[in-house]
TrEMBL record:
Taxonomic lineage from the root: Bacteria, Pseudomonadati, Pseudomonadota, Gammaproteobacteria, Vibrionales
Domain Protein SirB1 N-terminal: residue ranges: 34-184
Protein family per UniProt: Belongs to the UPF0162 family.
Pfam families per the UniProt record, alphabetical: TPR_9, Transglut_core2
Top-level division of the source organism's lineage: Bacteria
Annotated protein name in UniProt: Regulator of sirC expression, contains transglutaminase-like and TPR domains
InterPro entries: SirB1_N (IPR032698), TPR-like_helical_dom_sf (IPR011990)
Source organism of this protein record: Vibrio hangzhouensis
Amino acid sequence: MIELFDEDFDAIELVEGALILNKAVDPDTQQNWAEAELARLAKEAEQSLFHERDDKQRLDSLLRLFYTEWQFCGDHDAYFSSENAFIDKVLERRKGIPVSLGAILLYLGRKLGMPLEAVTFPTQFLVKVNWPGEAPVYINPYDGEYVSKKRLHAWLIGNDGPLVKLEAKHLATSDNPTVIGRWLALLKSALLREEKYTLALRCTDLALTFVPDDPYEIRDRGYIYQQLDCHQIAATDFQYFIEQCPDDPAIELLKTQVSAINRSPVTLH
């Protein structure tokens, strides 16, 4: 398996790091095709915007190209589908979620010399635009619309309650390793919902190369092993979680499962 976190993700574009992640989870990922398609789109964008001289107008033209002509859009019908976290699938379907669409938009914008950055806002991924000498503005990559701070505060209230305040930390630029780590968690959750346990197990194994003793990741791995009928391995992972997090609300249920596994006869395959 690819050692995902051996990669220097800050030395490459976010979308390129996402493709490395995708390939590590699913070897069938069309990484070479996706890289070629990204390069093709970048070239097409450069040719389309060649005569634009105003930087802000160039960005607005890129957004029109991306969302109107190329018809990239948020996946309203199957938001939580794992396909929305695989860059090759997003490029094929022209549908995605904020982080996958945002990663592609960042790639294209930077290729055109635009001052775009990634923001992992608490409710979703954003693209920050840092025009020289001006306050940053923010784009919702789900639909390509600019988002005001008033609207961002409303999103935050909906997520954290009426007393929360919009702070600078919420809009800080995120480095690629941070985004990739969250992308991995998102992908694992989607694969678990779809009962694609072998792929979900790869997500957990990758996460544990980064934080080897994370009890919650080990608990999730135990659940996956249980679904794959590897009950003794599951029990070992559950027992580790029980010992490390004795006050967790799920402890009693896990103790019951471990006890049931230990009482069951071991099947040799």
